Amino acid sequence: MSKKETIAFQAETSQLLDLVIHSLYTHKEIFLREVISNASDALDRLRFESLRDSELGADTAGLRVRIEVDAKNRVLEIDDNGIGMSRQEVIDNIGTIASSGTKGFLNSLKEAQEKNVSLPELIGQFGVGFYSVFMVADEVEVETKRAGEAKGTRWISKGKGEYSLEEIDKSECGTTVVLHLKDVDPNVDGDRDYTAEWVLKDVVKRYSDFIEYPIELETGEGDDAKLEVLNSKKPLWARPKSEIEDSEYVEFYKHLTHDWNEPLETVHFKVEGTTEYSALLYIPRARPMDLFDPKQAKSRVHLYVRRVFIMEDCEELMPSWLRFVRGVVDSADLPLNVSRETLQSGRQMAQIRKRLTRKVLDALLALQKDRREDYAAFWAAFGQVLKEGLYYEDEHKEDVARLALFHGTVGDEPTTLAEYVERMPVKQKDIYVLVAPNIEAARRSPHLEAFAAKKVEVLFLTDPVDEFVLQRFTEFDEHAIKRVDRGEHDLEDEGEKSEREAKEKELAPVLEAIRKELADKVEAVRFSSRLTDSAACLVGGDNDLTPQMRRMLAESGQPVPDAKATLELNATHPLIEHLTALQADDANYARFASGCELLLGTALVTGGEAPQDPVRFAQLVTELMLQKS
Ligand code: ADP
Questions:
Q1: What percent of the chain is modeled with pLDDT above 90?
Q2: Is residue 165 part of a domain?
Q3: Fewer Cβ within 10 Å of end Cβ, the chain: N or C?
Q4: pTM (two decimals)
């Protein structure tokens, strides 16, 4: 009975075929991954069934996938000696859209379009992977024989509404997928020639390197013909840690990341039980150029399912504040056709992510403790990213805070918050920080004067993210985090306080005059307890935006809220005495007024800002220089 029969696809199937072909065109090369992954499954199943049914007589030692190319005729064959399919299985499996049914698919397609789920992901979810061959082939033949059966089946289709079936003789069980390739389209960006050896090698290496069966390619002709195995077959993560050499970890890291450096730390572990998976994670040494590129993925960890590559840069695996971590996770129990949607809603995924996060944080804490110098380099490269965790994540906030390093007024090396707290005198309750554009500017800040005089340590926050971080990161180890450039700080003892208050009383008239002069430029003018050397500085309210933040908002085109700072004056500075004298003399009032303006201008400059009207400021300075006293 070798009659050839032509069967129409279900109406929706051909509609869908069309859709698949047109929606996946930017990912054409995945057809090979799909076919190889099906072949690998078929090999798994044969191996599995032979264990129970010795009658099958299968040769499970020689299981392999073989790729053959006939470049002249543009034919690509992918052959496996796996379980194969019966005639009915062919009809069920590749004549119709798998399990969920086409109607269901088309319905979810509508929903997906409303929700903006991308088509390739959706297609993966419905197991229509085989149809991706029609992206590269205009005719496809499948020759297959189910293990244990006498006859085989040939399925042929152009992917256009119908397929034919006929019975064939086939000596071995297994499946050969024969693709009659379309011509390479020079107008399609990235269209590749899948008869070219190097293209096949590249695609196999990229997607199927860790398939555990050899993926062989026939190369050379005539006497030179030989079989080359394209995949390494070695999923490093699946091997016991004790048997893996350091150099193997390093090689895999380089292969994975294209980084020339060795990784700073490798985290490899296996979890068994209700959720089963292995993870091999790396912490790099150097910061990649694109770490802050918003177009970059929010995670750099790839997802495998039972050694089959599923998803690059899987955002569900890692929080974005650990996006510098590279590596792979191989799940034993997720379905092969898992989609983004299922990943996002899955409880299992949340568990995996939590565990990975914990492991990375532990590795970093250990690094900080045992290899401080390396750790400091790590922090310099990635601290800015990690700090985002202080903002976004409550659960790990405490650990991220422990990991943070800060330069400050004590020593040249950066310090941790825990070390700071340990050095705090008993009566100090708060942790003092100063936000500044860089360390040099921080060191020169007038806000530090009183703290320096009292020998109170201040930490510097010099990353652009610090502004945001401080909104949520308000305490550590039960100590409030206080900004020295905000609000008022109580550093004085009783004697100093009453001395200052007496002075302020005496200077009340001049203070009032300065206030009047600057009324539309500052929120308030007051005497300061934080200045010892400088004459003046500007102070924000506890919830005000700092100059850096205002600049960032302005640069990103956002409206900048109108908030004026408070001008603080040093009552003991000779300049105040001078202004008092000028103010008392009506003839000198103009000089007093420009003195006030200059005072505000210099306070802005020392705070890292430009005077409100730089030209006028320069004029005033020039006048001052020309003045005969
Ligand atoms: P999925 O693999 O996601 O189920 P596919 O469209 O890729 O969806 O394949 C449909 C089905 O066809 C597979 O589930 C399998 O039963 C069958 N099949 C495909 N390729 C092979 C093969 N090489 N050997 C045996 N069965 C295969």
A1: 45
A2: yes
A3: C
A4: 0.62
